[in-house]
Amino acid sequence: MFHWYASVLRRYGGFAGRARRREFWSFALVNFLVVLVLTFGAGLTGGVTNVGGHPNLTPGSSFFYGLYVLYTLAVLVPSLAVSVRRLHDTGRSGFWLLLAFVPLIGGLVLLVFEALDSQPGDNQYGPNPKTAGVGQSQSQSQGAYLYPPRQ
Fold first, then answer.
1. Angle at CA of residue 131, ends 33 and 99, nearest 5°
2. Which bin fits 55, alpha (ψ -120 to 50), beta or left (φ > 0)?
3. Is the pTM of this model over 0.85?
């Protein structure tokens, strides 16, 4: 699972190509767990206190909230890129990601699109990542791979 997470980070701004469900959902799960740990850490170290009617962060929670902001900014582009590649894998343009701005229904539609199986065979965005890359170099398969390369 962490290999898939690392592969998304290695392809930092790679919006071209396709992403398997495993790659997308592994990245989403690890991302969620990191955010959960940082938020839980902020809560354990005091969270937000209300002093004199003004909310204040305790020093420990300020550290965790700072890490949270840095982490969120660091994974913003990879998150968008893997989401666009996942939409490509289902045969949709990356512009469908703009549905996220439609209240309630937009997020649900995107969730369904991201949960759908890959479009079989090659499509306009590249070869199917489930089958591409077997016996090929990464450049031959246009960035698609069956398993991420191990270090």
1. 50
2. beta
3. no
Give the 3-state secondary structure of the chain: CHHHHHHHHHCCCCCCCCCCHHHHHHHHHHHHHHHHHHHHHHHHCCCEEEECCEEEECHHHHHHHHHHHHHHHHCHHHHHHHHHHHHHHCCCCHHHHHHHHCCCHHHHHHHHHHHCCCCCCCECCECCCCCCCCCCCCCCCCCCCCCCCCC
pLDDT tens-digit series, residues 26-82: 999 999 999 999 888 877 777 666 666 666 666 667 788 889 999 999 999 999 999
- Is residue 132 within 8 Å of 126, Cβ to Cβ? yes
Q: What is the pLDDT of residues 75-95, one digit of tens each?
A: 999 999 999 999 999 999 999
**Using only C-alpha atoms, what is the Rg of the chain?**
19
